[in-house]
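Work Package 4 report. The design task specified in the project plan requires that, given a folded chain encoded as structure tokens, an amino acid be chosen for each position. We show below one input record used in the internal validation round.
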């Protein structure tokens, strides 16, 4: 057997370069790049190996380990899980900074390869700088912190182990059902150690994402339930995008006359004016979608993990005879809440269900009713946006930009009040043009994720929506977008603190505490000048007042040759009303009357929750 002598780090890099995939008929690198911050643990061996392959596997320097890994997550989402970025860090805090990003990838079912340094396996020099020692477990290091937030975890203790580990890690990242982050801990001494690796291990390999088909018996059962539905409802989840099943999903809805509602991850499955589109569902959803969900007798959920924001903490489905059909490539997600499950790829499963349905078509008046509900929702939005407030609201800012964007402009956001306002108010003009990270709702994703999205889609305009709280938490990748030539337009909405949590606090206790800046313990009333700060990071930046100035600035941003930051003060107390109930832990005992009132309201709404089994599934 022919072999080649390489260090473990060199072998890992050579293997990464050899992995290929196909996108739209063109063969491309499966791993198109690495985000790296180097320090002891990865600079001596892994950096040495990466430096030799910059033409095939470019390394992009991040400025925060968490944010560079978040950029990698957003890249994978924009690429619909067809390509995977790598993020590498040093030992210690560099490593643990990536734990949050791993959780984001895990919650959102997205691929990410993390390679961090680890302490010496020989232990002679213990404790090394930044080592966390466990007195009763010498083999435990900070690498173990990743076990809870990754789909695949391994620590390399011998060079030859990567021959087994790397293909297994990749198999999970490419598996549509088990997709998530993979972590490899690479101890300093093992990274530098050489081994005679089989040359065959480094041969180019073409990979693809499988499309597992459903069990025909599950399809038959689902068709039997749907065929007698008077008020069916389709929920489009993120899996519709990842399966590249939008065309099949849309055709199914149109052919069967079924209204469509979308989760946050599924948003922009249909454009806003599509005849079957009935709005976003759930806590950050529309009155139209939630009204249909309350009446529906059969709900077909496609590619969604049915989190509480989608289901209104499982209280949005109020029809006692409602039957849930869940189409999902993941068995775990498909079988939630005793759904009648169809386990399989969304595209393949929808085709099979369509064939099994025969001539079924939902009653025409049901889709007409959905259209009327949507019209009323859009009328409400228009009326709310037309109101005169003492400062712009999120909804008004969103509509102002929505009116100016090109069809293919790509929206990115994450935590705080903006996701809800964008989900309710943003009217998608094209399919696949929306990324609001709401699986883990991670503050900081907005800026870092926009950088990764722009890398994935260099020919599309990427617009990042950022609250002042998220900006302060993680902003260094504004500089990254400038330094690497990946232009992003950032809309920074400053409402003076964590205003949406303040809203939740007021709604449940009537008391404002430690969320808006004016209610925090401080001695200085200074507010951050976000425009000056962004300019210091190399972006073009300006602060505007009012909607007309905002739109003029956005036109300038579109014409600019580098990242552009527009800052606008927004209302801390005005919100789009819609949505559904959301269960939060309201205190059962309190000396404040407002809390007791909120608890009574909580008890009343909780009665609508379903324990999991709605009706017996008839044979």
């Amino acid at each position: 057997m022919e072999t080649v002598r390489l260090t473990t780090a060199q072998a890992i890099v050579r293997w990464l370069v050899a992995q290929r995939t196909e996108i739209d008929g063109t063969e491309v690198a499966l791993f198109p790049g690495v985000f790296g911050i180097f320090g002891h643990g990865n600079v001596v061996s892994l950096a040495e190996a990466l430096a030799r392959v910059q033409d095939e596997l470019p390394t992009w320097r991040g400025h925060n380990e968490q944010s560079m890994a978040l950029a990698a997550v957003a890249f994978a989402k924009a690429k619909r899980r067809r390509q995977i970025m790598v993020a590498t860090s040093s030992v210690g805090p560099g490593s643990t900074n990536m734990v949050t990003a791993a959780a984001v990838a895990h919650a959102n079912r997205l691929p990410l390869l993390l390679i961090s340094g680890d302490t010496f396996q020989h232990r002679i020099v213990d404790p090394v700088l930044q080592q966390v020692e466990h007195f009763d477990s010498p083999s435990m290091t900070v690498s173990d912190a990743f076990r809870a937030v990754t789909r695949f975890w391994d620590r390399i203790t011998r060079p030859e182990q990567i021959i087994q580990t790397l293909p297994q890690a990749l198999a999970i990242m490419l598996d549509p059902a088990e997709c998530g982050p993979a972590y490899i801990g690479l101890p300093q001494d093992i990274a530098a150690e050489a081994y005679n690796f089989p040359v065959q291990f480094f041969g180019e390999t073409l990979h693809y994402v499988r499309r597992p088909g459903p069990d025909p018996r599950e399809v038959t059962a689902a068709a039997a339930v749907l065929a007698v539905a008077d008020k069916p409802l389709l929920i489009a989840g993120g899996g519709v995008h990842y399966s590249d099943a939008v065309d099949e999903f849309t055709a199914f809805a149109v052919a069967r006359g079924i209204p469509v509602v979308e989760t946050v991850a599924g948003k922009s499955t249909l454009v806003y004016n599509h005849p079957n589109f009935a709005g976003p569902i759930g806590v950050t959803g529309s009155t139209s979608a939630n009204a249909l969900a309350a009446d529906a007798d059969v709900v077909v959920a496609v590619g969604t993990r049915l989190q509480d924001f989608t289901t209104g903490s499982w209280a949005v489905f109020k029809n006692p005879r409602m039957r849930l059909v869940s189409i999902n490539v993941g068995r775990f997600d498909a079988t939630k809440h005793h759904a009648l499950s169809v386990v399989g790829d969304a595209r393949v499963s929808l085709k099979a269900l369509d064939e099994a349905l025969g001539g079924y078509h939902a009653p025409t008046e049901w889709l007409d009713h959905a259209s009327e509900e949507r019209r009323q929702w859009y009328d409400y939005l228009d009326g709310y946006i037309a109101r005169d407030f003492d400062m712009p609201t999120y909804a008004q800012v969103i509509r102002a930009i929505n009116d100016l964007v090109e069809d293919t402009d790509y929206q990115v956001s994450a935590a705080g009040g903006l996701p809800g306002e964008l989900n309710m108010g943003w009217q998608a003009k094209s399919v696949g043009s929306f990324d609001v990270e709401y699986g883990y709702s991670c503050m900081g994703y907005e800026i870092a994720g926009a950088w990764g999205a722009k890398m994935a889609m260099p020919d599309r305009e990427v617009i990042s929506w950022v609250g002042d709280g998220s900006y302060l938490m993680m902003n260094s990748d504004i500089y990254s977008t400038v330094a690497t030539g990946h232009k992003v337009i950032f809309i920074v909405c400053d409402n003076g603190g964590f205003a949406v949590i303040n809203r939740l606090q007021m709604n449940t206790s009537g008391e404002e505490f430690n969320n808006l800046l004016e209610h925090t313990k401080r001695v200085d009333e200074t507010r951050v000048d976000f425009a000056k700060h962004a300019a210091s990071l190399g972006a073009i930046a300006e602060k505007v007042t009012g909607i007309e100035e905002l739109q003029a600035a956005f036109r300038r941003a579109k014409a600019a040759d580098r990242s552009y930051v527009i800052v606008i003060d927004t209302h801390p107390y005005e919100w789009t009303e819609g949505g559904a109930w959301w269960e939060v832990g309201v205190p059962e005992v309190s000396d404040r009357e407002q809390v007791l009132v909120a608890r009574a309201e909580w008890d009343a709404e909780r009665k609508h929750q379903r324990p999991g089994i709605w009706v017996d599934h008839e044979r």
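The chain has three domains: 3-207, 216-376, 387-569. Validation will be extended to a larger panel in the next phase.
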